[in-house]
Design a protein that fits this description.
The structure is a single chain. This protein is an alpha+beta fold. It has one domain (about 5-145). The protein contains six helices and five strands, in the order αβααααββαββ. The chain has helices spanning about 5-20, 35-40, 55-60, 70, 75-95, 115; strands spanning about 35, 95-100, 105-110, 130-135, 140-145. A three-stranded antiparallel sheet has the order 1-3-2.
């Protein structure tokens, strides 16, 4: 299999496993184990717009409009989206995740049996709905719940 998983790939597996464990899932229930916006909030610490709250809103409405590109910074925001999409694609290639895009281009996925049984390396994740700090060069902003 080559190299081990990156911190981002470990985070994706960890968040997906948490979602499976914490949601009352049934075979007939549609949905994904992991959505791109969850990774943006939990791994990168992007602040969620005040009118949305994780995990309910993000699980029911998995779109990046939960974030303000202006507040985060366009370059940082777009780089993170690309990195998460590439990481999900690589997990798909390793047969750990069934990766797919929704009609509007949002990435999401379901863990395979191999992904569900994997013990990911510990990575630092921001708690759901936690106040987060975004760095902007010299200054920084604090976002409260």
């Amino acid at each position: 299999m080559g190299k081990g998983l990156s911190d981002l790939q470990n985070a994706i597996i960890t968040i997906a496993q948490e979602n499976i464990k914490n949601e009352p899932r049934r075979k007939e229930r549609m949905g994904a184990d992991i959505y791109l916006p969850e990774v943006l909030q939990r791994f990168y610490g992007f602040p969620v717009k005040e009118k949305y709250s994780f995990p309910i809103s993000i699980r029911d409405h998995p779109y990046t409009h939960h974030f303000s590109m202006k507040e985060i910074g366009e370059k940082k925001y777009r780089a993170a989206i690309c990195a998460v999409s590439r990481a999900m694609k690589r997990l798909h290639e390793r047969k750990l995740l069934r990766w797919f895009c929704l009609a509007d281009g949002e990435s999401s996925g379901n863990l395979t049996d191999k992904g569900k049984s994997l013990k990911p390396r510990d990575v630092k994740l921001h708690p759901v709905n936690a106040p987060v700090k975004i760095e902007f060069g010299i200054s920084s902003i604090f976002i409260k719940e």
